[in-house]
Amino acid sequence: MRPALGVLALLGLALAQAPKPLLANGVPLTARYPLNRGISYTEARGLAGALGLGYLVAGGDLYLTLGARGVRLAIASGPKAAVTAKPPAAFRQEGRVMAPVKAVAQALGARYQGSPVGLRVSLPPARYQSHLLSQAGEADQLFVGFSRDVNLVPLEAGRFRVIGGAAEPGFWPLFGRHLYGLELAPDPYGLVLTLRGAENQPLRYAPVPGGAMFWVGSPPPAPDPPRVVVDGGESPAIRKVAEGVVAALRRAGLEARLSQAQGTAARAEAGTAADVFLVLAPGPAPAVYSYRPRGRALSLRFVVKAREALLLGGAPPALARLVAPAEASVRLAARLAEALGAPRGQAEIALLAWAPKAAALVELPAGTGGEAAGRIARGVLAYLGRKP
């Protein structure tokens, strides 16, 4: 009897170590279990393609994004370091980056199902739920809500592919300064969203929690000169970069200063009087973050209510001079990420919670030089619509 039990134990061990089929949104992949630790891994690029995720490897980290959500995984030196990390990390194998399947699924809201014979990971279809049109100066501001976060792929002017979207063909009339209709149509990769009236207008867009925001028309003029506050923290190297950013912005004609505040509350308060608030901090790789509330109510109630009033439209012009929509920080982060060639994400960062206008945190690795200061300044100028 005991020899038989030993054989069964060895058989169970072999089965646990064996690769398993993995279906990701119906796409066949393979799950592997490094060192038999019970943690499933698969090739990150293949998983991203199957689920319609954004994929980037930069500075020793793996970034997978779904609209306004994202997960950053350190790329460990090997399988052992990856599976013993908490949370599990990614690792390279034969030139491919391997990602922990369950950790990615949980971070991005995908469904993970495991069984002795195989695994399934799936994202529910992103179904259209609602839209809201308001005015931001001379521009139309349109929020389109879906049942989950979505990635957008711009097509020709005024048209976007919504990866993983699901909708019956539909048309909703709009009564904006420029927009006169929102149209949804099925597509092999999801659905196509068309903004009628946006074809010959300046168009900006950004993913936001639960959907996407679009701005059609000329952006409202910024205050002259815009006020920029840069927080360099306590690291001498980072403060040197912050000083370089301030100097570059002053040369461009902006009212820029370096924050001297100490302590979290005082540092956060320094950004309440700024049109642009930047926090520079050390990190393992260049990355840009805007604020996203999660479990704690860190934001000032006045700012939250003012942003709701701006979104609904009809708010007095004086309010728009005091508070900007939350999407302003998303646009600032996008311009900074483009200037630095870095990924961007959102997180509940206390230093950004009180900022009434555009705010972002920029992580910079050790050894960052003066070139980064110029890039960050160009990102701020691009956000403000000014030439360097």
Summed up:
With 388 residues, this protein is α/β, with parallel strands linked by helices. 28% of the residues lie in helices and 37% in strands.
Question: Care to describe what's here?
Answer:
The chain has 388 residues and is α/β, with parallel strands linked by helices. Helix content is 28%, strand content 37%. The chain has ten helices and 26 strands. The strands form five sheets. Strands 3-8-7-6-5-4 form a six-stranded mixed sheet. Helix 5 packs across helix 10 (370-384) and helix 9 crosses helix 10. The radius of gyration is 23 Å and the shape is globular. The model is unreliable at 1-16 (pLDDT under 50).
Radius of gyration based on Cα positions: 23 Å
Global geometry: globular
Strand content: 35-45%
- Distinct helical segment count: 10
Question: Percentage of helical residues?
Answer: 25-40%
Largest sheet: 6 strands, mixed
The whole-number mean of residue pLDDT values reads 86
Strand order of the largest sheet: 3-8-7-6-5-4
Q: Which structural class matches the secondary elements?
A: alpha/beta
Note the gap between the termini: 80 Å
Number of strands: 26
Multimeric state of these chains?
single chain
**Regions with pLDDT < 50 over 5+ consecutive residues?**
1-16
